[in-house]
Amino acid sequence: MPEATILYGKPVVEQIHAQIRQRVTALTARGVTPCLATVLVGDDPASATYVRMKSNACRRLGLRSVPIHLPSNTSSQSLVDTIQRLNADPQIHGILLQHPVPDSIDERVAFDAIRLDKDVDGVTSAGFGLAAFGRPAHRACTPQAILHILDFYQVPLTGRHAVVLGRSAILGKPIAAMLLNRDCTVTICHSRSQDIPAIVRQADVVIAAVGRPRFLQGDWLKPGAIVIDAGYNEGNVGDADFASCVEVAGAITPVPGGVGPVTIATLLLHTVAAAEQQA
């Protein structure tokens, strides 16, 4: 059996960037510069790297970035106060709260403090609800990036069985709802699921989003299944065991170079859309 087609993120990113540049030019002509505020709490080096990558991407594409770094002992109320100030600032169009936040902070309270039209990362409860019902709202960025990849490579979804490995509020749950809205039959597996390999063998599309390195094994897959690896773990490895999955899957995203870059591009696309709406 031939190895799987590799679904690289780069051409998807290039397509999104072209759209962003065109829309930023139109906004700039109206005197509006799309602006993303990034809020980082604490000193987690991986989070700091992610924020820096997003700021760099903003600069390359003509957006403005406002980085805000709060100490690790910041209280939930202080964080909410910071977010409320950004909500009230008409020059800020999108707000990203980099997660995870320190354990002392109520992450859900902080997320839900973000104004809905500035929730460009799709993390608020209201945004999740609207997206689940197929209503207008900024989608969670990684799930939306997954759909951008599937659409770019013309992977059919209607009537197919999608298995989502993971049920996080910002990835597993929203991508399950979004795939359901695209007429997939969706199964979610999690830490309490029994005989996950047997469930995965029924899948036409597998979304690996468990946060465990090389969790998904190639011998779990139905031959020809599409594998989207949304994980990123220490050592530059995803949640799928690429070496074994590539032998069985019909197509698979690499790590790095797959979902991650498309997620950042999606965040900036949402920021531009937010600026258009608010202008």
State the gist of this model.
41% of the residues lie in helices and 14% in strands. The chain has 279 residues and is an alpha/beta fold.
Question: What report would you give on this structure?
Answer:
The radius of gyration is 19 Å and the shape is globular. The protein has helices spanning 10-29, 45-61, 76-88, 107-112, 125-132, 141-152, 172-181, 196-200, 242-245, 259-278; strands at residues 5-6, 35-41, 64-70, 94-97, 161-165, 185-189, 205-208, 226-229, 251-252. Strands 1-9-8-7-5-6 form a six-stranded parallel β-sheet. Strands 3-2-4 form a three-stranded parallel β-sheet, sandwiched between helices. By secondary structure, it is α/β, with parallel strands linked by helices. The protein has two domains: 31-118, Leucine Dehydrogenase, chain A, domain 1 (Rossmann fold); 141-260, Rossmann fold. The chain contains ten helices and nine strands. The model has no long low-confidence stretch (mean pLDDT 96).
Write the layout of secondary structure elements.
Elements lengths: L4 E2 L3 H20 L5 E7 L3 H17 L2 E7 L5 H13 L5 E4 L9 H6 L12 H8 L8 H12 L8 E5 L6 H10 L3 E5 L6 H5 L4 E4 L17 E4 L12 H4 L5 E2 L6 H20 L1
Helix pairs in contact: 1-10, 6-7, 6-10
Short descriptors:
six-stranded parallel β-sheet; 279 residues; 2 domains; Rossmann fold; alpha/beta; three-stranded parallel β-sheet
